[in-house]
Amino acid sequence: MQKREDGASPPGPLIKIRVSHGSLRYEVDVPELSTFGELKRALVRDTGVEQQEQRLIFRGRERKDEEYLHLVGVKDKSKMILLKNSASVERKDEEMKRDPVISRACVAVSVVREEVNQLSERVSALESQVYKGAEVADNEFVVLTELLMRQLLKLDEIVAEGEAKLQRKIEVRRVQTMVDTLDSLKMRNKL
């Protein structure tokens, strides 16, 4: 078997994987010959949970990063559960207790993350409408983009260090990805 170079995307058609994380649901498209580690990297931008903090459960078992999706039976529209590693959560809680500035910044980022999660659901719904061929009013794209830009402004106002700075950076990337998605959906909607 030939080993892939780091950063090279695996070959093969894309499959859609449904991931549950708490009360949230995500759909992630990855090549069918990906590993669980590559799936975790794709989940970072959607969930905001760092790769080393993720635990993916498929068919009742936690899967290792180097396991290939197709070899353990993952197919298109397979379902998985994403859990956050409790040891890393406890470590972050300890860090936040030691530094109240980081704690306040983390809380501020968390508030924005909750709002972005709600907007993310709206973006996903809009995305499914566009891909089904339904005509969507341009106003929908404009309103959602504006709401996401407001979240970016809120994130820019947060003064953060350490863990809070990392969380803020992840959320900024996540919001920017959603804005890019909306732009491409708007173009596709016009066709």
From TrEMBL:
Record-annotated Ubiquitin-like domain positions: 15-83
Keywords tagged on the record: Chaperone
Residue ranges the record marks as coiled coil: none
Pfam families for this protein: BAG, ubiquitin
SUPFAM superfamilies reported in the protein's UniProt record: BAG domain (SSF63491), Ubiquitin-like (SSF54236)
Record carries keyword Chaperone: yes
Top-rank taxon: Eukaryota
GO biological process assignments: protein stabilization
GO molecular function: adenyl-nucleotide exchange factor activity; protein-folding chaperone binding
A cellular component term, taken from the record's GO annotations: cytoplasm
Keyword Chaperone: yes
Residue span(s) of domain BAG: 114-186
Entries under InterPro entries matching the protein: BAG_chaperone_regulator (IPR039773), BAG_dom_sf (IPR036533), BAG_domain (IPR003103), Ubiquitin-like_dom (IPR000626), Ubiquitin-like_domsf (IPR029071)
PROSITE patterns: BAG, UBIQUITIN_2
Protein name, as recorded: BAG family molecular chaperone regulator 4
